[in-house]
């Protein structure tokens, strides 16, 4: 545990200014940063407390939902205008206590649960660039199937992000250079040779809100895990379908626990709107999966989870 | 038989935060200590450089191998006297400072020069060096009865299997802690231990000081499960050294991460089990071979195959335990040591045999009931296993067990399984003292600590009840070596050992009071037959009900200073009976084979463990044990990184234990059992719930989806697509 300077940002402009300093970290709910700091995994020189900034509103207008980055997960889940897919994903996340503290922005930017990343004395390129990837030849049951590199096989742990990806959400980012928007899955970087950077955010940039367009269809969030509660997904699937006259006219599928970011299953989506069966969509979902020694079962699990989620939304095919 | 079941005596204290645990011992001028961990996992420490630590503001002391040389050299002090690193995370020094922050900062700045040797990080790397220890637990590691090999060759049915169980860690809610100080030559040690008296002996031995100069106190213990024993002592000694050198009290508390490395673990097992049956399903042979891990600085084998020696009737039994030394943490007993992993194999194999033979699993077990202890060649002091099967089956509805794989509910395929549980009834020497004050308030004293399982309550309850006093008039004092000596909290034997001592002391006290009453002309009971007197509502009364006197009035005249009795219980040197507690555990699981998820839906367990002193506490022990067993079956798994030798994921985010959502309804049946041969008729119950349930779950999974899981924990990938 290293010492850090603590500063509470009075307004957004001050947060952006303080956050641009090298070694600065934003503190919102603190449910992840404090763990990482205590474990010696992250040692910010300055902690910029943004928890009181006015970025908490949850609003809905013309079917478009806007989640303030500092809205707490529990508040989002309880809000009547929030899409049920988001509510389900949040309800499946963490514990009641954590959902009361954790924020939307913090949840999206939480770091991987890879045990090599979370132990300060093990090889991990994400935590300590150049130290190697301990999981590649070590314990890798929880590792990713898609989007990995030789440098990193970690997954992104958020449930909320998977639901948001399936809903084609965007994040609004504010920074020294102004405001910009990214698609939810563009927010995340694939590891490549630089796994230390999780997100496409420049120093000092801040997620201000998440914008969720309307989706007029049915949906489900399916989370498979080793115990019944308070556990990250082994595999999860967010599925949303719009069916008209017995035909799927719109399909959205995203998977969690299988990639460094929420993994949109676009080939399966396209096939579904072209009349493919759920089984065919399941088969397409796992194309290109790259198993390691311990996580091969997740390929079959993903295939089955996609089919199950589609059946839940659309009825047995 | 005690019908009332008082609630936990210390419950309100604990809920209100007023129960003082060792780490919370209030003391002035306290130093905080932090352990400095080795930078290597195997090798030698060449130098410990504390220069940078000494200049940290608030620094008080650094204890390294050099400072520990003043301790006596013996097994326990080797880790702190010899600069040899056996496992990753092994401490090499202790830093004490004015604040915890200062101690952490100073500890982080200690520089260690080390020579790393090649570490053995996994049992598989050293199979060629496997060896047979002399003991498995407290029993011989190898046994042979009859000729199992020949009997297997002639058996009508042979069931063979390879079983594996994972490393588990104990994880009591309260981490190990010590607050210690010296008053002249006197050492005062408040520490989390399952053995205050053994801890006192170890301290006296290590510091080469008289036993009388050491006081060990543990008034409340936040669980132990077997890990609060001698592995903690070296680090406690370092804290005591720092206290003696600085003249200030020192506090050391392990971190949650250190409970993965410094406190012990349940041994992983590889088991080869072969059962031979005749055509009627009677066991003709058992061959149970066990391989386990031990560390390079200690030796321990669970008695994993022990249960195969006596649970069922079988003329030909061969068992053996072998060990492999690795540079991993040292295993120690963990709740239901040996029995839990051993029964997982044995009871899974029984289920497999029942299925092959087309015999109901309960019926197969009944056919193989052991009428006496064939290993010890002794009669059972009592044995109600058949009643456990009968009553448990009735409550669970076993007779309606559907055909395998035929029941489902929504996405869940439903399966039922059963397994036997058992645990030997241990007991040890114990002393207890009773003090009846002039106002007829009673104090019960015994030095043994309460692990959190209810010792305060049960002792107060039995003594108070025998003297007709309400719980509010009874005080229980435990967990202090200044009190009469009692046993260690291990082997489920505390209640079974202390109860007879308290019972004897209270009988003596009743006799003394009766004698005083009948001999006192001023008492309404004068001249009565002492045997006709009883005790109720604070009074001594004649059985005929025609005379009574408040205890306080009798004491005021006859014993104005109160009365005191002290009794000792000694278990017999040679046993003429074998004592055993039993259980039958019935489980309903739901398995979603499409997604691999397994959930326990229902547990019904019938236990027979002699006289139950307090059904509320007993139920709590049984349910807690079953939850631990569910964790072992489905969740708990400590993994070593083969490359670095480090334990992966040292926290509860990665070491999964059952959450409330993983706990089903528990239906506990307590089978009445009158054991005339055991003192007080009491058997230990703490282990019974933890064993058996693993195989019951595995058998239920097989019943649901046809998968025979022989490796714990059973996870998604084991049943996916079944």
TrEMBL record, chain A:
Gene3D superfamilies, A to Z: 3.30.465.10, CO dehydrogenase flavoprotein, C-terminal domain (3.30.390.50), Uridine Diphospho-n-acetylenolpyruvylglucosamine Reductase, domain 2 (3.30.43.10)
Enzyme class: oxidoreductase
The protein's Enzyme Commission number: 1.17.1.4
GO molecular function: xanthine dehydrogenase activity
Pfam family, one: FAD_binding_5
FAD-binding PCMH-type domain mapped to chain residues: 1-217
Presence of keyword Oxidoreductase: yes
UniProt keyword list: FAD, Flavoprotein, Oxidoreductase
Protein name: Xanthine dehydrogenase YagS FAD-binding subunit
Provenance organism: Caulobacter ginsengisoli
UniProtKB/TrEMBL annotation, chain B:
Keyword Hydrolase among UniProt keywords: no
UniProt key word Repressor: no
Gene Ontology molecular-function annotations: xanthine dehydrogenase activity
SUPFAM superfamilies referenced in this protein's UniProt entry, alphabetically: CO dehydrogenase molybdoprotein N-domain-like, Molybdenum cofactor-binding domain
EC nos: 1.17.1.4
Any one Pfam family match given in the protein's UniProt record, by short name: MoCoBD_2
Keywords annotated in UniProt: Molybdenum, Oxidoreductase
Residue span, Aldehyde oxidase/xanthine dehydrogenase a/b hammerhead domain: 16-119
InterPro entries in the cross-refs: Ald_Oxase/Xan_DH_a/b, Ald_Oxase/Xan_DH_a/b_sf, Ald_Oxase/xanthine_DH-like, AldOxase/xan_DH_MoCoBD1, AldOxase/xan_DH_MoCoBD2, AldOxase/xan_DH_Mopterin-bd_sf
Name assigned to this protein: Xanthine dehydrogenase YagR molybdenum-binding subunit
Gene source species: Caulobacter ginsengisoli
